Amino acid sequence: HGSTAADPHDAMLRVSRLPLVRSAVQTVISAYSEVKGRYPLLGLMGGAAEVGIRSISYVAMRQATPLFQTLEPQIEVANSFALVGLERLEKNFPILNHVWLTVSGQHCSSCRTLSWADLPRQDWTTC
């Protein structure tokens, strides 16, 4: 039948929707955005890298689409196994249904968390 991005039986989509995964990714994205805003040179380099990655990804997906279509039955079998494994993980590790800040606060109370404000500000214009 072919899976789509909205298919609830898509293992990768389900993993990406787990609260722990979604919130951890959002934390990384926020940190990355903060660095780009704070350090203009890194922001410029990061922006250029993003454009390159988007272009490469687009070409790779266009080239890989026929292969994915050919391998669709095997991909669906692998997806079915992944869904079974995911069900087990969700059952055995309820922590997956918590957001990252809750998990990091509860399970790492003795950890020192650094923020970008803790890092020394560099003057990159003198390099």
UniProtKB/TrEMBL annotation:
<dbReference type="GO" id="GO:0010890">
    <property type="term" value="P:positive regulation of triglyceride storage"/>
</dbReference>
<dbReference type="GO" id="GO:0019915">
    <property type="term" value="P:lipid storage"/>
</dbReference>
<dbReference type="GO" id="GO:0005811">
    <property type="term" value="C:lipid droplet"/>
</dbReference>
<keyword id="KW-0551">Lipid droplet</keyword>
<dbReference type="GO" id="GO:0005829">
    <property type="term" value="C:cytosol"/>
</dbReference>
<protein>
    <recommendedName>
        <fullName>Perilipin 6</fullName>
    </recommendedName>
</protein>
<dbReference type="InterPro" id="IPR004279">
    <property type="entry name" value="Perilipin"/>
</dbReference>
<comment type="similarity">
    <text>Belongs to the perilipin family.</text>
</comment>
<dbReference type="Pfam" id="PF03036">
    <property type="entry name" value="Perilipin"/>
</dbReference>
